[in-house]
């Protein structure tokens, strides 16, 4: 069995402009602990890989925030797969293209699904990245084609949005609560 840690939507360096300055500073300090806590959880639970499905940053980012994320992901000591989201999309100035990332980090840099094989886990990881705030359907025309025993995908998105490719199939289930993984 493969153990996977999944996380998303850290929104590091978010402006927090609707908070009073003291409250914003406290929240910012707590948010900066997220990468280290995620890496520690990964180790504590002996995970085989980490999937990060976007919006780790909230647009622009500070150099110390970037270093914190890079160090935490390296410290996790497992393969890390990142699918950039709409707030930290792949653009000319994005950290996904301009910065050096640890060797264990793979970033999906295109708006079409790509694959990466982890032969040691007999697993194929699929992913794609947003290239703008309002990216098109990343799963359009996607078909999994792998020869590994296991396959997993990482994408950023919200299937409850009408424009989502998943909305038509999932919304009726969520609306009624029948057979929904969200309703116990």
Provide an overview of this structure.
There is one protein chain. Strand 3 (80-82), helix 4 (95-98) and strand 4 form a beta-alpha-beta unit. By secondary structure, the protein is an alpha/beta fold. The protein has one domain (4-158): Purple Acid Phosphatase, chain A, domain 2. The chain is built from five helices and seven strands. Residues 171-184 have low confidence and may be disordered. The strands form two sheets. A four-stranded parallel beta sheet has the order 1-2-3-4, covered by helices on one side. Helix 2 (34-44) packs parallel to helix 3 (63-76).
Summarize this structure briefly:
The protein is α/β, with parallel strands linked by helices and about 180 residues long.
Which features would summarize this protein structure in a list?
Purple Acid Phosphatase, chain A, domain 2; alpha/beta; three-stranded mixed sheet; 7 strands; 16% strand; 27% helix
In DSSP terms (H or I, runs of 4 or more residues), the helix count works out at 5
- The coarse silhouette is globular
Distance between the termini: 25 Å
**Which percent range fits the helix content?**
25-40%
Encode the helix/strand succession as letters: EHHEHEHEEEEH
* Unreliable parts: 171-184
CATH architecture: 4-Layer Sandwich
Q: What is the CATH T-level topology?
A: Purple Acid Phosphatase, chain A, domain 2
Structural class assignment: alpha/beta
Tally of structural domains: 1
Residue-averaged pLDDT, rounded?
A: 86
Report the C-alpha radius of gyration, rounded.
17 Å
**Biggest sheet details:** 4 strands, parallel
């Amino acid at each position: 069995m493969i153990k996977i840690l999944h996380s998303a939507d850290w929104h590091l360096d978010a402006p927090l402009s609707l908070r009073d300055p003291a409250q914003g500073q406290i929240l910012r300090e707590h948010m900066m602990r997220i990468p280290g806590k995620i890496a520690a959880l990964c180790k504590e639970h002996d995970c085989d890989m980490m999937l990060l499905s976007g919006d780790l940053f909230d647009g622009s980012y500070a150099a110390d925030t970037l270093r914190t994320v890079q160090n935490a992901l390296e410290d996790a000591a497992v393969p890390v797969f990142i699918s950039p989201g709409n707030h930290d999309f792949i653009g000319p100035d994005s950290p996904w293209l301009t910065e050096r990332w640890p060797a264990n980090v793979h970033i999906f840099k295109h708006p079409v699904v790509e694959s990466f094989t982890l032969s040691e886990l007999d697993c194929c990881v699929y992913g794609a990245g947003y290239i703008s705030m309002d990216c098109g359907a990343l799963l359009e025309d996607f078909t999994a084609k792998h020869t590994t025993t296991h396959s997993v995908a990482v994408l950023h998105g919200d299937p409850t949005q009408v424009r989502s490719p998943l909305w038509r199939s999932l919304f009726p289930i969520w609306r009624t609560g029948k057979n929904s993984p969200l309703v116990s």
